[in-house]
Each structure stands twice: as structure tokens, then as C-alpha cells.
Amino acid sequence: MKSKKLTQNPLFLPLVCVLLVLAVNAVYDLSQGKAFYEFFITVINDQGLLTGRLVTILNRGSEVAILAIGMTLVVSASAGTDISVGSVMSLCASFCCMLVAGFGVSSVDDVAIPRLLLGLLGALVMGCICGAFNGTLVAYLNIQPMVATLILWSAARAIGLLLCNNLIVYVRTDAYGVFGGYIGFLPTPILIAAVCIAVVSLVLKKTAMGMYIQSVGINKKASRIAGLNSKRIIFMCYLLCGLCAGIAGIVASSRITSADSNNIGLNMELDAILAVALGGNSLGGGKFNLAGSIIGAYTIQAITTTMYNLGVSSAVAPVFKAVVVIVIVVIQAPPVKNWVRKHTAARPAAGKEAAHA
Amino acid sequence: MENNVVLTMRGISMTFPGVKALDNVDFTLRKGEIHALMGENGAGKSTLIKCLTGINDFEAGEIRVDGVEGTVKNHSTQDAQSVGISTVYQEVNLCPNLSVAENLYIGREPMTAFHTIDRKTMMKKADELVKRLDIKVDVTQNLENYSLAIQQMIAIARASDMDCKVLILDEPTSSLDDGEVEKLFKVMNQLKEEGVGIIFVTHFLEQVYAVCDRITVLRNGTLVGEYPIADLPRVKLVAAMMGKDFDDLASIKPEGFEAQKDTPMEIEARGLSHKGTIKPFDLDIRKGEVIGLTGLLGSGRSELARSIYGADRAQTGTLKVAGKEAKISQPLDAMNLGMGLLPDDRKAEGIIGDLSVRENIILAMQAKRGMFRQLSRAKQEEIADEYIRLLQIKTATRETPIKQLSGGNQQKAILARWLATDPDFLILDEPTRGIDIGTKTEIQKLIIQLSQQGKSIMFISSEIEEMLRTCNRMAVLRDGAKVGELEGELTQERVMAAIAGGADNEK
Amino acid sequence: MKPANAVKGRKQMNGNTLLLIITIVLFVILYAGGCIVYGSKGFTNLQTFLNILISNAGLICVACGMTCVMLTGGIDISVGSLVALDCMLLAYGMGKWHMSAPVMCLIVLAVGLIFGLVQGFCVGYLEIQPFIVSMAGMFFARGMTAVISTDQLSITQDTNAAFYSWANWRLNLPFGGVLNRKGVLIMPYIRVGVIISLLVLIVIFLVLRYTKFGRSLYAVGGSEQSAAMMGLNVKKTKMKAYILSSFLCSIGGICYCLNTQAASVSQATGLEMSAIASAVIGGTLLTGGVGNVIGTLFGVLINGTIASIVQFNGKLASSWPNILTAALLCFFIVLQSVFAFLKEKKK
Predict the structure, then answer these.
(1) What is the number of CB-based contacts under 8 A between chain A and chain C?
(2) Residue B328 binned pLDDT confidence (cut-offs 50, 70, 90)
(3) CA-CA distance, C140 to C160, in Å (whole number)?
(4) B56 and B154 belong to one structural domain
């Protein structure tokens, strides 16, 4: 009975994944002749920066975590995923660097702060525009979410390249690098992700948005009768998802102080969707659990980092992620669930009978 | 078995969890007759049909089909087809993107020697088939280019071509206009002449009397009787369906108060309509009045209510709410004008299954306040607890997902959702369907209480008795139009006569 | 058959036919525009048109498969990665394992079948959203490509003489020759990939039109429930569609490899997009049930013409074809949505 309750907890799946990753790490550390708790060791190094494997994962996982926020809402409200987030990230980064450096300029070393702010703002606005574009197609034109976002998935990266005049635009200034670097001893991306998570959690807590989104995702018709504007809510989710992609794009671009259109946010949509699924959220929409998605996001980063440690190249990593995605969705698939229910329902009954006898 | 009998069902019984859906029902179909299967909601018509076509497994009884040895027990629609039982449903089960000919022959296409489809032969056969039934179509055209009526006829043609002895038509006319129904009847009569036995399920009384030879009436899962059409005039049919013996009906006087003539109007509708569901109607509702909408299922009761509420946006007409001109384009507009709608399909349009009872109760109230003015958690809990107590909603906790509650308690929670918004005008569409007697009475009492508080209520129910008990006035609907209003002393006879309509009452 | 069809074409001027007509007109305008602007650079040569076919032979096969899947109302975005995997398998197999070309081709086709079987099972029998399944498939195939090798491989005379000779074989057409600057008559030619892809196109056209399987695809896409009620096996039909798609994709992969004679992890990125765009532009509805491969061919040609124009211009950035394709896709998706809305309203 107790085990059943545990498995029904929404955080069950993500926590199991975390434990699994930790176990793999511990085994890896032991085999390398290090202490099994090596993973958690966090120190401030000579340069006064916080380092350690855990910190690296939290740092590197920031973009996925930010994307996972938007993706969670989109999945919940529209039962579809936004596959354009990776490309939109890249577009926002390109747009930002283009605004900062000027069109056709491949590298700037010194930038006035207002100009920098303009670039950042531009990136966020661009994210919102992309989100609004997706949202309009999905909510108002009734196009399947994944097909609608397919357009930007393909085009956004190309537009980004165009904005950068096919160059990799470098913005080599500390003021820009700070978003992917450090504030004091703390990696900024961790901070940005934390702020995003905090803001969205607060909004979900203080407004009725969470309930609106879930309500629309569970039963669109009933929500409408009860006075919710289903279309506007779905639109808003996509808008937010676009904004999240914009923020993630800035972080990713700031890390390398440049806009590398071809590589920023590559395969990131898979990570974001995987984070949502790992977080125990059904890809069929409805109830969501933001905390689960966030844990899912960091779990994925931990998996990725662990894979790199084990010598798996970044190009091969998607194989494993794809397998994980398929396993998760297969578990969630209705026919599989029915099959499992049929076979587990028979067992306790049989057990009871045996006990009686 | 008589010679000309094609189908007999004897002693069919079937239980759904907790409900006896069919109890010892007999049914006989003869060659070349059109036999109406009548009954109100939950009477067991569709269950009986599903037992016949193999979608449901019946528990007791036997089915015999002419020309088949022994008893028949189907396990799928394919099984049913193989013994000559074909079904055409209300929603056309054809592919609109394929040609008429393909729809007639898909799955059994004539093949060439190379295992490819012989399109030429298929077109020719299809053409012959539609000509035989006198359906005027070009079989090479896509099905979607034709009206619903033609599509329905193509479905019938497909069914009849498969060596069919028994043809079941389940509400085929629900979405057709009069002219289209006429054409459909021609096809039915043609098939009848060819010796096919047709079971016709419909809610439209006119149509029953237009084509049928015999009527079988079911009520609450039991057989009321089988009658030749001439022996069962309209009013008697309605009485049989509603479960009242017409002759010894005791009139029940409505309780509650009479609406005073000087009470201000809450709702004044003029010429509202929604294409395809409800023809233009006028309706006035006074403050504190309970108005009942009556008519058979499919007569446009729900649709009338929905067009006022904006659930289906009215396409014509004007609406005044509390004396002021109102524009309602979506439910939220209606809510802001103080309306509420408890929809008849609880599962599809009422509950938000995965959300808790608390969230379901406060949803409409929250929607009215807007997203950014969230009710505090404490306030939400207070409201939820209050209504759980008030309406005696039986739930483990207020955080239990509503889908785990019983139907009656779900209904109370939805009712609570609307009461929480403190509406001036509440539309209750079948609020008592599928819930136990105790809860039904509670809801009826509640309606009277609310009207005493000055709220206007529109009450829709298939059970005349509870309407008589609660309503001050009734509007009668038939075949998608409002055909009259009943005021003063409401009796079952008057209501039934009005529902049944018929020659004397027409125009 | 002919007269019946003629009637159909005349009477049935509904949204779907209109979409196809728009597509054909668009192609003609684009191509004519190219001829006018870049006529002096040789755009008017027959060879320019044939080059579009040559470089898009793979895409034609892939898009045919995509059309079949989309007819059922599904989608398969794994095709681009699968093509990359096929190319890598071919190049690596012939280069490193020294397998013969026909054997490697058979292996590639088998991989396609298995890949499709798994995807089709997940979509048909486990009822998982096609998009999710094929997205996982996309990343899986791309990753597997990297597992085989992350190098840039090319297939030369030394790697595999047979394959190299196939790739460089050309069929000169007996007409449409042009004199070059030296006054030598050069006949236009096509390559083996074009022949394969046109064969695929014809076969799929016939399959869709004249076989039970083909019509089931339409029926399932038109209304899954109805198809089931009429006794068709919906799950099996869906699974077969994905198997067909992946199989055609493998044939496309071989054509692609014959054209590029190279393999790398990043090969054929965005091919799924071109394939989907070609199908949609060619009049295949995203909701399923409507479309045919002739339209898809025009979709591919439009794609190819855009790329060709950008190439003739020489100054436009290489990302323009991508953007234009996406814009066209967007335009046609919105158009489909509007037509669907109008149809709904008419009812």
C-alpha cells in the first residue's frame, strides 16, 4: 500500500531519475579511485569561483531549466510541444549580438551599456514575437502545435544567420559575458535560472494562471463554459515559452560571448521536452508540476555531463536521450497502461485469495 | 417464429456496474417493415442496439436471425454484418475525403487479376447501386461534396448492399432538414419493399408516424410494449415513453409561488437562433421565475439555453438582460451579466476531471474575477467547505480530484460552482440526470429556494414530474423550434399533449 | 476512367484542388521568373531543370514517403537523420568494412525497414503521438550516425569502384542539347538517382490509387473511426505507413549518397523540413486524408527552384532557401487552416 502511494507522488519519477544519476556517478567515481561523494564536492577555487561537478551541472543546466518552464506550460495547456525553442534561442542570441555589434560587424570589443541593454531587450522581444507567432498559429488557427512550431524550428536559425550576415558575431566585453559567467563567486546562469523559476512560481502561486492553464489543458470545453478564454490562455503559454527561449538564448550566447547561429540551442528542444516528461508531466496535457520539470531539466544535464565524463561525445549523446524519451512515452502510452493495469489487477486479487486459503 | 420474421430478441438482460441497463427485453422485427424503437434517455435503446451489433455483451437472453442456425451472439460489428445486421449511425461513419463509390466499397473492393483495385468495375457497381435506390449522385465525386442527407443515404446504401436483412438506423435524421428527411424516407421505403427489416431509432415523433409500421417502446431498461402504429396515437406514445398511464393521471399542482405580472423581466430574447440547432425564438423570463423547457430529447431544449448563454453563439436576434441590451459572444460575457449554465453533459462540459473539488467549485468565480485577482487559498477553502457542507457533497477531502466522485456529487460540485458566482439567472440543463432520488429532491428544493431569493431559473429535464413540481411556466419545444408556452395550471396531460403536438395542435 | 476523372476535375473546384493549382502556378511563376532574371546565366537550359531533379532525387523519395505518412494524419520528422545515417552506413561500410555496394544498399534498406517498424509500432499500436516518436527517432538516427563515425567521409573511385561508377553514370537525353562556348553540342543528362526517384514516384502514385493499402491510407486519414467501422485495420495501416516512409527514406538516402558521394554527421539537416514542406505545398493536408505524390513532386520542384535561384544569384546568403521554404510552408499551412475554417462555416 505504501509503495503505491509513493509511486503516485508526482515527484516520484524525477526523484528516481536523480537517484539513478547519482548512483551512476558514485560508481564512476569509485571506479576512478575517488570517493563516492566526489560528485557533491563544491569548493571555491583560486580564482574565487565556485566549482565542482554539482555546480557545473547546475550551471550548464540553466538553459534547459529555463526552457523547461515555458515548455511545461505549453505542454499543459495545449497537449503539444513547442519544438522551436532551440532555434528561437539561436535567433534571439543572433538578434541580440546583431543589435549590439551592428549589422555585418563580426566582432566588437567595447560596447556602451545602453546599446547592450538595447540588445538584451531586443532578444527578449524577439523571443516574445516568436512565441506570439507560434501561439497565434496554435490557439487561433487551430494548427497542431508541433506542426505550427515546426516552421520556426526550421526558419528561426536561418533568420538568425541572415541577421548576422552569415558570420559568428563576437561581443567580447565583460559586460556581455557576465550573463554566462560569474557574479562574485556564483555562476550567473544559475542565478538567472533561479530568478526565472522564482518569478514563474510566484506568478503561479499568486495568480490563478496555474489553474487556468491546467483547466484548459484538461477540458477545453468545460473551461469555456466556466468562463475561461481558452484560446487566450494557450496563446499566453506560447508567448511565455518564447520569452523563456529568449532568456535562454542570451545566457547561451553570453557563455561564448558570441552568436553562433548554427550551434546555440542545438537539440535543446529535445532536452526541454525530455525535462517535462522526466518531471512526471504527461505529454498529453493537463496537470503539471513545475518543480518536477525543473528537477527533470537538471537531471538531464547531469546525464549529459555524466555521459561526457564517460567519454561519450556530444554528437552521440542524443541516442541515449532519444531512448529515454521513447521509454518514458511508452510507459505513459494508454495501451501500455491498460495492459499493465490488467496484469497487476489480477495479481493482488490472486494474492488475497491465496491468503484466505 | 413466424414466417416473415427476420429477427427476434428474447429476454435480453444486461447490467452496467450498478445499473440494470436492460431487463428481460423482447424485440421482434419482421421482413419488410420499418419498426421504430422509442424511449427517453436511459431507456435502453442504444444498449439494445449495441447488444445486437456486438458492441455490448448481453448477459441473458437470445437472439435469432432468419437464415442462421441457432442463436446468434455477435462480438463485433463485423460479426453482426456477417449475419446480415448492418447499422447506420447518427454521425456518418464514412470517409468524406474518398469518392462515393469508394465509400460504398472500401474494404471489399472489386479486384483485378493484378491485385489492384478495379476502379472501373467499382464505379459501375456503385452507379448501379445508387440508381437502384434512386439516390442522385455522381459516384466519382468525393463524399464531402454532398449534403449530410446524401451522406446518410450512401451509408444506408453501403449497409444494404452487404446482404443485409436487418438495417439499424440510429438517429439518422437528427441533423437533416425536412426536405432531406423526405429523401431519406424514400430510400427507406425502397429498401422496405426489397424485404429488408429496418429498425428506426429516432426522437422525432412526426417521422415515426410518417414511415413506421410498428413501434416498440422501452422505458428504464424494460419493455413497455410493441404496438402497430395505428393503435398508438401520439399522446399515448408520449405517455408510454414518459412512464405515465395517460388515463389515470393524477394532476399535481405546482408548488411555490405564482410570478406576479409586474415583476421586472430578467431575460428578454427576441428572435435568437443558432443555425442547424435552434430556430428563431422569443422568450421572456421574469425575476424569481422558474421556467421549464420541455420537449423530447433533441427537440432543441439544450440548444435554446446554450444560445442564450453564448455557449453556442446566437447568430440572429437580440437579447436584453435585466432590461439592458446585451451582447454575448462567449460564456464569460454571459457570466458577467449574472448568468450561469450547468451543462447537460457533465463529463464533457462540466467537470475538469483532474482538478480537485475545491478548484472545480471556485473555477467560475475565479474566472469572473480575472486571472490576476486570485482568491486567496484560505478564501477558496472557505467557499469550497461551505458548499460541500451546504450541498452535502460526499467527498473524501476537498482536495480529491473531482473525477473520483460519484455522478451526483460531481453534479452538486458543478452546481456549487455556479452558486458561488451568485447568479441572477441560472440555467440548469438536466441537473438530475443519472443521479439518485435523494439528490434529485435536494436539487428540486434548491431550485425553489433560489427562486424565492429572486433568482431566475431555467430548468430543463426529461422528467415531467419534477418540472411540474418546480416550474411556474413552461416553454415547449419540438423539432428545434419553440412551439408554445404553458402557463397557469400545469398538468401532465397538458404538457404531454403539447410535447406530442400532432394535427390538432399544429399551427 | 478518363472521362470520370475529367468530370471530377471540372466539378470539384474545392479548396484542395485549388491548393494544388496554386502550387503549380507558383512553380511556373518561380521558374519563369528565374528564366527571365537569370536567362543569360543559363537558367533557361533544360539542364538547369534536370539539375534540380538530380540534386533533389533523394528528396523526391523521402517526400513520397512523407506524403504517405501525412495521408494518415501523422508526420515523420526522422527522415533527415535517417538519410544521414544511411549515407554514413554506405560510406563507412564500403570504406572501412570493404563491403560491396549492392550488399551495403540492401543493408541500408533493411535498416530503413526496421527503423520504420519500430516507429510504426509505437504510433500504430502504442498510440503515441507521431511527432514525439519520430522526434526521438530523429535524434536516435543522428546520434547513431555519430556512433558510426564523426568524420567527413567521401566515396571515391578507391573506396568502391562500383558505387562510384553508379554515381557518375549519366544518361544523355536525345534532345535539348546546347552548344557551349567552343561550339560543342552538349546533351542534357540525368543520373541514376533521378531514374530511381521517378520510379518510386510512379510506384507510389499507383499504390496510392489502385491498391487496398493505398486507399486505406486515405480512409484512415479521412476518419479513423469510420475506417475502423468499415472494417479496416487502422493500427496496421498506420504501422505500414511508417514502414513505407522509412523504407522510401532509405532509398532516398541511397539516391542522396549517389549525388553527394559523401557522408557526415551534419548531412541532410533540415531535409525533414523540405520533405514536409514539399508535401504540404503540394496539397497534402496536415490533418490527413488529402494529397497525392504528383503535388508533392511540384512541392519538391518549388523547393529546388528556390535553391537554384539563390544559387544563380550567388550573392544571397545560403540560409535564404531555408527561410523561404519555411515561409511557404507557413503560408500553405495557414491557407489550409483558412480553407478548413471556411468549410466548417459552410456547414
Answers:
(1) 134
(2) confident
(3) 28
(4) yes
Cα(A316)–Cα(C149) distance, rounded to whole angstroms? 10
Q: What is the DSSP letter of B401?
A: B
**Residue ranges of domains in chain A, CATH in brackets:** 61-345 (1.10.3470)
Closest to C281 (Cα-Cα) out of C53, C48, C10, C27:
C27
Which residues of chain A neighbour C318 with C-beta distances below 8 Å? 161, 166
Of B357, B331, B311, nearest in space to A228 by CA:
B331
Q: Is residue B176 part of a domain?
A: yes
Distance CA B293, CA B296 (A): 10
- Helices and strands, number each (H, E), in chain B: 16, 19
- The beta-carbon neighbor of C212 closest among B81, B97, B109 is B109
CATH at B116: 3.40.50.300
DSSP conformation letters of A136-196: IIIIIS---HHHHHHHHHHHHHHHHHHHTTTS-EEE--HHHHGGGSEETTEEHHHHHHHHH
Are residues B229 and B214 in contact, defined by beta-carbon separation less than 8 angstroms?
yes
Q: Are residues B220 and B286 in the same domain?
A: no
Whether residues C143 and A326 touch (CB distance < 8 A) is answered with no
Chain mean pLDDT for chain A:
85
CATH class of the domain comprising C20-336: mainly alpha
Percent of chain A with pLDDT over 90: 36
Residues of A in contact with B364 (CB under 8 A): 226-227
Tally of domains in chain B: 3
B171 and B49 part of one domain: yes
CB B106 within 8 A of CB B98: yes
CB contact under 8 A, A158 and C320: yes
Between helix B148-161 and helix B119-132 the angle, nearest 10°, is 100
Cβ neighbours of C223 in B, within 8 Å: 93-96
User: Do C11 and B102 lie within an 8 Å CB cutoff?
Assistant: no
Q: Model confidence over C201-232: pLDDT tens digits?
A: 999 999 998 899 999 999 999 888 888 888 88
Q: Which chains touch C (3 or more CB pairs under 8 A)?
A: A, B
Residue owning grid cell 487502422: C234
Which range of residues forms the domain containing residue B100?
Answer: 5-232
Chains touching A, CB cut-off 8 Å, 3+ pairs: B, C
What are the angstrom distances between the C-alpha of B221 and each of B205, B225, C266?
20, 12, 66
pLDDT at C2: 36
Smallest Cα–Cα separation from A293: which of A308, A305, A282? A282
- B399, B422, B445 - which closes a domain: B422
Q: Do B341 and A225 touch (CB under 8 A)?
A: yes
Q: How far apart are CA C13 and CA B499, in angstroms?
A: 45
Residue type, C134: S
Note whether C206 contacts B145, CB cutoff 8 Å.
Answer: no
How big is chain A, counted in residues? 357
Q: Are A208 and B366 a contacting pair at CB < 8 A?
A: yes
Give the cell for residue C288. 490527413
> Which candidate from B352, B367, B375 shows the least CB-CB separation from A219?
B352
Task: Please state, in angstroms and rounded to a whole number, the distance separating the CA atoms of residues C67 and C20.
Answer: 14
Q: Contact B16/B38 with Cβ under 8 angstroms? A: no
Beta strands C178-179; C185-186: pairing state: antiparallel
With cut-offs at 50, 70 and 90, classify the pLDDT of residue A194. very high
The chains in contact with chain B, meaning 3 or more Cβ pairs closer than 8 Å, are: A, C
Q: How confident is the model at residue A87 (pLDDT cuts 50, 70, 90)?
A: very high
- Nearest Cα to Cα of residue A155 among A91, A81, A64: A91
- pLDDT greater than 50 at residue A142: yes
Q: What pLDDT is recorded for position A353?
A: 44
* pLDDT per position as a tens digit, C296-306: 999 999 989 98
